[in-house]
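Can anyone check this?
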Amino acid sequence: MQDFISDIYHRRLIDTYTEVRETFKKLGMMLSVLDRQISDIYHEIECTNEEELDAIACTVRLKAALTRRRCVKDEMARLKPFNSMAKQALNEIEVRYEGALRASFEIRQQVNISMTVEEVAAEMGVEGLR
């Protein structure tokens, strides 16, 4: 089966969306771990007597966890438009691309096209289509 230029771009879009989605999931997992750390520190503070509590150590750990959490949340906020818009766009592209593939198949069958666009480009001296 011949590989059309559109197939290459289609795969690239899917791969990019998959990568964005996986990165977003990893950031979500990191956020969950940090939330758990913060919750553990709060629990430690809650369950420890005032005399035994090392407030400075708890504050340092809490600040570090909160700083890391803010860093992850910031990156998630920056990535969120890519994640949501890419999903919407990919859904729309899938619908349109399937229609284009059906139409292309019918036309290629009707007029018996066996050439590839690369062959046409080579005949015409055009480079760099892929």
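Reply from J.R.: I decoded it. The mean pLDDT is 91.
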